[in-house]
Write a structure and sequence with these properties.
homodimer; 351 residues; mainly alpha; two-stranded antiparallel sheet; 15 helices; 74% helix; globular; transferase (chains A, B)
Chain lengths: 351, 351
């Protein structure tokens, strides 16, 4: 089975990203040490990760016979920049200073300020300002890469529409997520599901697949089918992520306590909290001092109440919907098989 | 003397802005009440103000005989969106919840959360998240308006370069500003001046004038001259703004205490602080409880130490440099006269 990481061209995306940041860092030196440092940290934030959004762009592009490699790599890189920008602003919003066990951009600049004897409040201002500005720059650059393509007017227009929609929907999802986690809004289950789609599925699956196909000149029916597939598989991916956040074995490199501590309102937790006898769950979730024992108890509760089973069923349902959407002559058969592989990887992954 | 506010087409920009926000608000309804509210608040944030950046785009465009009114209005509107985005993110970074005496976007969403019984910390998260996301959306849309223009490939490319430079330089200026105000960096005078140019002059004067001229097909020499003019006059404008922030008569609609309370490191204050006997100044600036009497004492100090005179001289010097830059046949004579008017307004204004 081919995996997304094997996608031809992902190495080119990593190279393109690297060249982009080198150019910016070089330019930044004229604006002082701190601004150069900011670009360096932004580059660091873009490194690592699975690069599966660029891989989706490239694989869809190839499926429809696209042969302008440079254009495909530019669009693929744009999605990775957008992803990095979203993470940077997400961290500011959530007040996170750590990612994957190391200081994130906010944390790096906070530490730097403290090392210079700056107080905690001001150090936090410095860290947050740095991440806000870095995100702004990457949001702009993501679009600049697409806007500069020398492609037909129709393709450019369709890609710009897609990117604008992508920002719009993702921002809507992030806004809803914060509304729920701050208790500004009290959602029903379907709203938590919609938030998941807007915040993650749209820009991570739907838009990259569609962008690759559009750039290669695929027809409307194909683009619509990929949109349906991406939406459903993106939701399934996120639901799997939520399960791994609690039941994971640590292979994700992510603590199985952080989701609990953050009190994230995932469909999993929302469903569980609505069940009778979930008082213990409510008390545990969102506490800063959650222990391994607390997590184990939460796991037991989620199993006993059927919440885990419920989410597994949801993942299955979305996977079936995704596969049904691409069962059309508009999607080349070989690519249908590849999308089956992607669906499998997204739903079954253990990391 | 013609004023910028009289510029033909500014009303079209206001209409274009209004249509843009109407479309977004209508689309947002599918994403719930809060996201619709976010767009409504973003529109509100873009209203009022002098709209002088769009006016600069339009007036330069006309000077070089541009006749694609729709394209000029789109570029002019893009600069106003960018300006609004910068203000929104600025407010988050500075922790400001009020602008022109009324709650800004952060403050509006914070109040809304508190009205719903949400605690202070969470309400602040909600307010800041809302402003970060609104700014992200406007940064994207500003560029989308330019990227979608049906103009020649050369003009599009030059405009995209200009916009990317604009984001880059403004972010550098904002980053430096925060570095200085948090004491992460201890600048020398020339660095405070550079920060002023990067943060304000570039996107407020230099880039809008150049964008209008480029769109109309002006030559390199003209574009370079406008850049020089915009840079110098933009610095003069900001220095005047700094003086009005302390010595203003309230006509600006801005309190003459807020700059003092915020402890902003302007060239004015930086110069004054370096002089002997400025201990009282250091103690007063940045205090939250600054009174009218404190401000009066600061005014006396700035006068007595010659700081005000020093900045007035700087304004004059930059004004002369600006006018010298446009004394070239590459700039039409009638437009040179108009730029003299603009220089006068920027340097002499009392509000």
């Amino acid at each position: 089975m081919t995996t997304l990481n094997d996608t031809v061209g992902v190495a080119d995306v990593i190279r393109h990203l690297s060249l982009y940041f080198e150019e910016k860092e070089a330019k930044a030196t004229a604006y002082g040490r701190q601004f150069t440092e900011l670009w360096h940290a932004a580059r660091h934030a873009s490194e690592g990760g699975k690069k599966f959004r660029p891989a989706l762009v490239l694989t869809a592009y190839r499926a429809w016979g696209g042969n302008d490699e440079a254009a495909a790599v530019a669009v693929a890189t744009a999605f990775e920049l957008l992803h990095t920008a979203f993470l940077l602003h997400d961290d500011v919003i959530d007040g996170d200073t750590v990612r994957r066990g190391r200081p994130n951009l906010v944390g790096t600049f906070m530490e730097q300020a403290r090392d210079r004897g700056v107080g905690g409040t001001e150090a936090a201002v410095w860290g947050n300002a740095s991440a806000i500005l870095a995100g702004d720059l990457l949001i702009h650059s993501a679009q600049a890469m697409v806007a500069r393509l020398t492609v037909g007017a129709r393709e450019r227009s369709a890609l710009l529409d897609l990117l604008e929609e992508c920002l719009f929907v993702t921002a809507a999802g992030e806004h809803a997520d914060v509304a729920f986690s701050t208790s500004v809004e009290s959602p029903v289950f379907s709203e938590v599901m919609a938030m998941t789609q807007w915040k993650t599925a749209h820009y991570s699956f739907q838009a990259p697949l569609q962008a690759g196909a559009i750039l290669a000149g695929a027809g409307q029916e194909a683009v619509a089918a990929l949109g349906e597939f991406g939406r459903s598989i993106g939701i399934a991916f996120q639901l799997r992520d939520d399960l791994l956040g609690i039941f994971g074995t640590g292979q994700t490199g992510k603590s199985t306590l952080s989701d609990l501590q953050g009190g994230k309102l995932t469909p999993l937790m929302f469903y569980a909290r609505q069940l009778s006898g979930s008082d213990e769950l409510r008390e545990t979730v969102g506490r800063a001092d959650v222990t391994d024992a607390d997590r184990d108890r939460v796991r037991q509760l989620l199993e006993a109440k059927g919440a885990r089973r419920f989410v597994e069923k949801l993942i299955d349902d979305h996977r079936h919907a995704a596969l049904a959407a691409i069962g059309t002559p508009a999607v080349p058969e070989a690519f249908q098989r590849h999308l089956h592989d992607i669906a499998h990887q997204s739903c079954e992954r253990a990391a």
